[in-house]
Amino acid sequence: MNRKKWLIGAGITVLVGAAIAVYSMQVTQGDPAVNVEKPKKAPFSENVMASGTLESEKVQHVFLEPERGSLDKVLVKPGDKVKEGTPLVQYQSSGRSEIRQAELDLKRAKLNRSQLYRQLKEVQQKGAPTTVSGENGPQAVSEKEIRHQIQLANVEVQQAEERLKQARSNEAKRVVKSQYSGTVIRVNQSSEATQGGGPLVTVADLEELMVLSEVSEYDALKIKEDQKVEIRSDALPDKKWSGTVMEVAPAPEDKNASNGGESQVVYPVKIDLNDKVSVKLGARLIVEITTSTKSALSVPESAVVKQGSNDAVYVVEKGKAYKKKVKIGATDGKRVEIVSGVDAHDKVVTQPPADLSNGAEVKIQ
């Protein structure tokens, strides 16, 4: 009898212990501790990302020009510092003899005109025709005839002056000079250049640099002058520089697609550098153009969970967490814009547990 009572008592103890354990688990599982935050305003920006190349704002390419004559020599080498007007390329020319002949022709025309003016003065003093030497001996010429000859002589002087001007211009063309102060970055005297292909000499101003980028037709509609730009380089991942949109091309360029695909329509964008960059001319860069900015209601990205194909957050009301569908917008990598679904007074769970269920009781930390 005593043994039977002992067994019954032990059984009751086990049942009571199990019930307490189950209740404790339910309380522990049903009341998870969570952190909450009310949605708050945060700045968001819309950006366009593209690749770009570091270029000089002032670049001069000197190509072979056969109309100037035969190439004589290139007068500079890579790395040379040049000023505006520095000779870069020289062509062969017989210009000096042409100039000398033009000078003699002009002198002769002016002497002939001076002689005619002396004859005119003599006729006017005599009041009668004067005698001049001609091909058939002395001839009498009137004032009218002399004035006509002076008109012809004036034409000859003008023509001689034009021939001298042209001869000097031709001589000047035999030397190609630098249009800017800068650095000679390339000299090419290979057959490609001397046959009219690539440039013989390239001069660039390394003090006035810009980034040349290309964007799609869609993105070009959003990009305007004076928009801010962040510039980075894969070669220097810890560096970044600032810039400003200087110009968006009004007309597109066709860019051939790889693998024989259809050509792409792109719009060149020039970006002015606000900082001095530590990469070389021609370096490939990454540009991020800020096309718009706004202040909007936001929550931490960790607060947003998926609800099928939709987004949702948990909102705590009277000790319970309720899942609310939300529409999200822009993100800055840490916070996400809330377009609709919650307002600034809601208590949003910032890091909801993976097993949190809709309507579950929670404890706010």
From TrEMBL:
YknX-like C-terminal permuted SH3-like domain segment(s): 296-364
Alphabetized UniProt keyword annotations: Coiled coil
Superkingdom of the source species: Bacteria
GO molecular function, one term: transmembrane transporter activity
Residue ranges of coiled coil: 99-170
Domain YknX-like beta-barrel: 210-289
Domain (YknX-like barrel-sandwich hybrid) ranges: 60-204
Keyword Coiled coil: yes
Pfam family, one: Beta-barrel_YknX
InterPro entries, A to Z: Beta-barrel_YknX, BSH_YknX-like, RND_pump_MFP, UPF0194_transport, YknX-like_C
UniProt GO cellular component terms: cell envelope; membrane
Compartments, as annotated in UniProt: Cell envelope
Keyword Transferase: no
NCBIfam families named in the record: RND_mfp
Family per record: Belongs to the membrane fusion protein (MFP) (TC 8.A.1) family.
Protein name, UniProt field: HlyD family secretion protein
